[in-house]
Amino acid sequence: MDWRVRAIRGATTVSENSVAAIREAVIELLDELETRNQLDPNEIISMTFSVTKDLDAIFPAAIARERPLWQNVPLLDVQQMYVAGSLEKCIRFLVHVNLPSDKTQVYHPYLRAAENLRPDWNLNPVHS
Q1: Which of 5, 27, 71, 128 is deepest in the core (most CB within 10 A)?
Q2: Residue 75: in which H helix or E strand, if any?
Q3: C-alpha angle 95/81/73, rounded to 5°?
Q4: Other residues' Cβ atoms within 10 Å of the Cβ of residue 86
Q5: Cβ-contact 13, 113 below 8 angstroms
Q6: Phi-psi group of 38: left, alpha or beta (phi > 0 → left; psi -120 to 50 → alpha; rest → beta)
Q7: Would you say the pTM of this structure is higher than 0.85?
Q8: How deeply is 56 buried, as exposed, middle or buried, from its count of CB atoms within 10 A (0-12, 13-18, 19+)?
């Protein structure tokens, strides 16, 4: 079987800067990523999370590392560039994965208030 590297984006928001709120949102976001893309964590090359400057209660990568089979995934957390008027309390990700080359659709999960960031990608299949 031939494989191809693909990039998948996604984002969500939280109601408050707390460990519980961030944990809930990250779990929901990663559940959507895995389920909608039928993704095996062993296929993940790396993942970068970015958070807006108002979120500092916990690293999203720390939450991801708690997931089954995610312990060996290279993860990175960064602060999202601040732009006045941009969406607050937002967690974004960019993940690179190896997928079978015949898998021509990926789902980019944009949840909660982040669904308006990329309405063209929001849970719609994106073809190669």
Answers
A1: 27
A2: strand 75-79
A3: 25
A4: 11
A5: yes
A6: left
A7: yes
A8: exposed
Q: Would you mind telling me the total number of residues written for the chain in this entry?
A: 128
| Pair 50, 84: CB distance under 8 Å | no
C-alpha–C-alpha distance, residues 91 and 74, integer Å: 18
CA distances from 85 to 64, 112, 115 (A): 29, 18, 17
User: Would strands 75-79 and 44-51 be described as parallel, antiparallel, or unpaired?
Assistant: parallel
Q: Is the dihedral of CA 55, 59, 61, 66 positive or negative?
A: negative
Q: b/e string for 22-46 if b means 16 or more Cβ within 10 A?
A: bbebbeebbebbbebbebebebbee
pLDDT tens digits for range 17-68: 999 999 999 999 999 999 999 999 999 999 999 999 999 999 999 999 999 9
User: What distance in Å separates the CA atoms of residue 61 and residue 66, rounded to the nearest whole number?
Assistant: 9
